[in-house]
Amino acid sequence: MKKKVVSLLAAMALAVTALAGCGSNDAATTGTDAATVAATTEAAGTTEAAGTTEAATDSEAVTGVKAGFIFLHDENSTYDLNFLNAAKAACEKLGIEYMTKTNIPEGQEAYEAACELADAGCNFIFADSFGHEDYIIEAAKEYPDVQFSHATGTKAHTEGLDNFHNAFASIYDGRYLAGIVAGMKLNEMIANGDITEDQAKMGYVGAYTYAEVMSGYTSFFLGARSVCPSATMDVTFTGSWYDETAEKEAANKLIEGGCVLISQHADSMGAPTACETAGVPNVSYNGSTEAACPNTFLVSSRVNWEPYFEYAIKCVADGTPIDTDWCGTLETG
Predict the structure, then answer these.
(1) pTM for the full model?
(2) What is the pLDDT along the chain (333 residues), one digit of tens a residue?
(3) 217 and 311: one domain?
(4) Which 3-state string (H, E, C) describes the chain?
(5) Number of domains in the chain
């Protein structure tokens, strides 16, 4: 069943894929191959490294761009790891130098990180978390010659700044497809006699009561219901994008409440590991958890950020405007 499900979803969309997360690191790092790192300095409690990459072919390479990336957490967060990997891949493909700052809270630290990247010569700066937006706007006003992009934000169209942009993707499409997988699994459990039709209850661990989270769990539920008409779902919120303890506790409470399958819009391994311990099927977010949860992982939905990074970096290199509001879809990859 699991192999058939994963094959189906891979064929349907690039929005559903596998990407394992691991490790923890409080450092801010310049993204290039470690062998190319030229220098390190200590600043603002983080470590920065400067380097270049030569991975681009002549047809892909761009000039005149140095990129900077600001992440709420580090590679220990599946959400941030997804951005980190995409940034590294895009910048190496295009042959540009880039810097990253990790573990940057949704506060004044985000403004300071953006200013430090601009002062270091970055002329394209990207921040990945909803709460970074106001601080990135502040930096954009101070550095009008630097292009700033922000994921999940809402204010670019009202700020009217030529150098501030919002970007996200129709991840609800990916969640709908993942919901179909969940519904197929519920049907299998019903057919096997593991549960009855009226026991086909799913649980969903959400971070905040934001529109993005709500549209995501609604899409997931509708996807499941499209193939398993008796499916129901309970939703709970942790009040944090990343809190492994809270996410694990939330998943366990949902399981104790009769949920036989769990999904999430939260960024740690808390819910997946709770499912693995309890033997409950799990649909993850931002990338595959199969390595850590081989017995319970079904599928994952994630945003592929490489196309946007390549697009925006090429705009900066060519001197062409970046879309004020950009939304990637299944069609754009």
Answers:
(1) 0.80
(2) 444 444 444 434 434 443 333 333 333 333 333 222 222 222 333 434 333 444 455 557 899 999 999 999 999 999 999 999 999 999 999 999 999 999 999 999 999 999 999 999 999 999 999 999 999 999 999 999 999 999 999 999 999 999 999 999 999 999 999 999 999 999 999 999 999 999 999 999 999 999 999 999 999 999 999 999 999 999 999 999 999 999 999 999 999 999 999 999 999 999 999 999 999 999 999 999 999 999 999 999 999 999 999 999 999 999 999 999 999 999 988
(3) no
(4) CHHHHHHHHHHHCCCECCCCCCCCCCCCCCCCCHHHEEEEEEECCEEEEEECCCCCCCCCCCCCCEEEEECCCCCCCHHHHHHHHHHHHHHHHHCCEEEEECCCCCCHHHHHHHHHHHHCCCCEEEECCHHHHHHHHHHHHHCCCCEEEEECCCCHHHHCCCCEEEEEECHHHHHHHHHHHHHHHHHHHHHCCCCCHHHCEEEEEECCCCHHHHHHHHHHHHHHHHHCCCCEEEEEECCCCCCHHHHHHHHHHHHHCCCCEEEEECCCCHHHHHHHHHCCCEEEECCCCCCCCCCCEEEEECCCCHHHHHHHHHHHHHCCCCCCEEEECCCCC
(5) 2
Residues of the domain holding 145: 34-169+304-328
Residues 38 and 158 in one domain: yes
